[in-house]
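Milestone 3.1: sequence recovery, worked example.
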């Protein structure tokens, strides 16, 4: 028995807030897991400290599946982003421990590598189409095979995905939620010209992606998907809110543009209909928000039965701990599609030293035992928590809209 002897939550803000769980065992091996929930970080920290950690002490760290079921079924109040992020942190840390004890990189315990590397996409954005494509060209020069395009919309002051810093985008930007105005009509007019210009500038060998960020109704999403079909996008992401999974039936009736959704999902039940009815092409649930590696493997296996591939969320609100876990997961599953990759700041990389590397448009988790990522607790302590909210959006008439 490898007894869990201690566990603690580490909250740090090297440019943005991260929540990390560290689990220690009787033989001195420890593991870490990401518990970050952007804009609600302290809710997960409290859930771990007040409700989860007391239940872990004395348990066998090797019993990953049993501990997962205990935390999921034992709480009675199932699912939800706070609960599942907390469970994910425990799950990641336990897999980290198990792989370290085996002296193997985690992907070897998950069945070994299915590919030589993990194709990732970068984020090109700008205030105008020209500026966006200039930044896209930089990503292409760096070897990226896939690039997400987000551009400013004429007539709107601020737009999701467009930042002042073209390479380090952080939407949680204020101590209280900032507000922006939104116009679906202006937005829908702006995207097809962006893709047309992108194909002219970048050619047809680069995968092009776009994030709608839940802003459209199903019929509006169908129209946009049809409008950009000639430019063969890799995917259209989060076209409409997916609480009603049947919404995607209507989109499917109007476009063959591949559809991706799921970064806000936290269980297999959030995507059951979407996958069973093949209403999406890529499931974007991520390790930290979907209950960890244990649960995300179930999602991936279910998706594989229906020809759906993975495209895990990988924005900077996920720490390098989660990125490492995602890469081990990506490398080991047969139906991997693509991995989002937003580079962390130098300060974040220093707090979380890691073994994963980028080369020729792909990431690899490395060969270090476990996840291949650690946390410098002394350095982390120098960056105290700083409250930061995600923005909210209103239509031009003042009513609330999905951000």
């Amino acid at each position: 028995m490898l007894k869990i002897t201690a566990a603690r939550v580490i909250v740090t803000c090297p440019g943005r807030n991260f929540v990390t769980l560290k689990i220690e065992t009787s033989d001195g091996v420890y593991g870490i897991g990401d518990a970050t929930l952007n804009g609600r970080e302290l809710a997960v920290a409290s859930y771990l400290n007040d409700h989860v950690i007391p239940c872990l002490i004395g348990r066998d760290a090797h019993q990953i599946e049993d501990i997962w079921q205990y935390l999921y079924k034992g709480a009675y109040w199932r699912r939800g982003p706070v609960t599942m992020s907390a469970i994910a942190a425990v799950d990641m840390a336990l897999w980290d421990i198990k792989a370290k004890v085996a002296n193997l990189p985690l992907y070897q315990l998950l069945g070994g590598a299915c590919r030589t590397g993990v194709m990732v996409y970068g984020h090109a954005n700008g205030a105008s189409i020209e500026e966006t494509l200039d930044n896209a060209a930089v990503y292409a020069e760096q070897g990226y095979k896939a690039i997400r395009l987000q551009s400013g919309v004429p007539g709107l002051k601020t737009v999701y995905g467009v930042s002042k810093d073209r390479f380090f985008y952080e939407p949680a930007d204020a101590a209280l939620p900032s507000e922006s105005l939104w116009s679906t009509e202006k937005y829908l007019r702006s995207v097809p010209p962006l893709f047309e210009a992108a194909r002219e500038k970048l050619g047809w060998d680069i995968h092009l992606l776009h994030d709608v960020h839940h802003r459209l109704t199903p019929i509006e999403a169908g129209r946009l998907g049809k409008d950009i079909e000639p430019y063969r996008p890799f995917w259209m992401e989060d076209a409409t809110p997916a609480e009603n999974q049947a919404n995607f039936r209507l989109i499917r009736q109007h476009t063959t543009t591949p559809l991706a959704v799921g970064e806000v999902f936290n269980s297999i039940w959030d995507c059951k209909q979407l996958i069973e009815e093949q209403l999406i092409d890529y499931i974007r649930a991520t390790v930290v928000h979907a209950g960890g590696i244990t649960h995300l493997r179930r999602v991936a296996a279910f998706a594989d039965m229906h020809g759906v591939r993975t495209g895990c969320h990988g924005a900077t609100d996920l720490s390098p701990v989660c990125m490492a876990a995602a890469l081990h997961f990506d490398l080991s599953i047969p139906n991997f599609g693509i991995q989002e990759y937003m580079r962390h700041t130098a300060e974040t990389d220093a707090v979380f030293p890691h073994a994963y590397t980028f080369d020729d448009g792909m990431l690899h988790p490395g060969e270090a035992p476990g996840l291949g990522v650690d946390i410098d607790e002394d350095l982390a302590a120098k960056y105290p928590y700083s409250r930061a909210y995600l923005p909210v959006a209103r239509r031009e008439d003042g009513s609330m809209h999905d951000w």
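The two ends are 47 Å apart (CA to CA). The first strand starts at residue 4 and ends at 12.
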